[in-house]
């Protein structure tokens, strides 16, 4: 969804820039450019707010499903399914409002979710349930340790699957504000510190 969001804002700024150009050139070319500028401006605003509304609806749907599964800090999105196998993309769930958390609490919630996801996979009506998550090194190591403890097969992919997962410093600061209320000063992971972990649960 971050790719979708970036694309929307890229188109938005392009449309606004074009609208500004049309507005200033209509004095020399003709009034029709003023109508073009107005249409571009309205279209840009509608595009952004419609995208926000749709993304919020999607996130709320998956967050409700996560709560039903008793997950505290993660949610999953099914994206590849066959007769014997299903793949879920694992995402970290950001709070809807700023909360007073600590890194230790977030990590504990994440680790507890690993057990709950394992229990969910064991009861899923497929022979194999695969979880794929792209995150930074700290959570990758925590997930690997949980997989070891549960006796699950796992691997670190040679390349990251979710190209939108690595964050800029600005995006990282935004996540910290949501997670911790702005009290934590945690270094933004470098681009090379992000990994994709694949964990497989085999059912009898």
Number of helices: 5
Q: Would you report the number of β strands?
A: 5
What portion of residues belong to β-strands? 15-25%
- Helix amount, in percent? 40-55%
Distance between the termini: 34 Å
Strand ordering within the main sheet: 1-2-3-5-4
Shape: elongated
Radius of gyration: 21 Å
Low-confidence stretches: none
Order of helices and strands: HHEEHEHEHE
Overall mean pLDDT stands at: 87
Largest beta-sheet characterization: 5 strands, mixed
Content-based structural category = alpha+beta
Short synopsis of the structure:
By secondary structure, the protein is an alpha+beta fold.
What features would you describe in this structure?
With 204 residues, this protein is an alpha+beta fold. It is 54% helix and 19% strand. It has five helices and five strands, in the order ααββαβαβαβ. The chain has a five-stranded mixed beta sheet. α1 runs antiparallel to α2 and α3 crosses α4. The longest helix is centred in the first third of the chain and has 37 residues. 18% of the residues are buried. The model has no long low-confidence stretch (mean pLDDT 87).
Which characteristics define this entry?
204 residues, 5-stranded mixed beta sheet, 5 helices
SSE layout and pairings?
Blueprint: H1 2-29, H2 32-68, E1 74-81, E2 85-92, H3 103-122, E3 128-136, H4 137-150, E4 153-156, H5 169-180, E5 194-202
